[in-house]
């Protein structure tokens, strides 16, 4: 069992930056591929970025490439999402997710564990 807790959301102006953190419980964090998703009201949860447990390899949805960076610190059981050049369309609740021993996963159905989400609002 893995418990995930996101933090770092908030209100930011367009063009600004935020860093989201997702802290995981347990001693086997390094064996989990970690993903970030986001969701707006009335829409499905969309893939944003993923970092694999081995490598690590990273993948991004096209709309955030060059602006967002996913990283992990296995000594702190934490995955990060650095978000730069934020746009109003990045406004959403951001969730982190975990799945053990999978090379990569882009859909929410592939993940076994989820955090509670953190709100990101990009507005002037």
Describe what you observe in this structure.
- With 124 residues, this protein is mainly β.
- The protein is built from no helices and eleven strands.
- Strands 2, 4, 5, 6, 9, 10 and 11 form a seven-stranded mixed beta sheet that branches. A four-stranded antiparallel beta sheet has the order 1-3-8-7, with no helix packed on it.
- β7 and β8 (78-83) form a beta hairpin.
- The chain starts with a strand and ends with a strand.
Strand content: over 45%
Percent of residues in helices comes to: under 10%
| C-alpha end-to-end distance | 40 Å
Structural class: mainly beta
**What is the H-and-E element order?**
EEEEEEEEEEE
Radius of gyration: 13 Å
Largest sheet: 7 strands, mixed
Total number of helical segments? 0
Low-confidence stretches: none
Shape: globular
Overall pLDDT metric: 96
Short description:
It contains no helices and 11 strands.
Feature tags:
124 residues, mainly beta, seven-stranded mixed sheet, four-stranded antiparallel sheet, 11 strands
Topology:
Elements: E1 4-7, E2 10-12, E3 18-24, E4 32-39, E5 46-51, E6 58-60, E7 68-73, E8 78-83, E9 92-100, E10 113-114, E11 118-122
Parallel strand pairs: 2-11
Antiparallel strand pairs: 1-3, 3-8, 4-5, 4-9, 5-6, 7-8, 9-10, 9-11
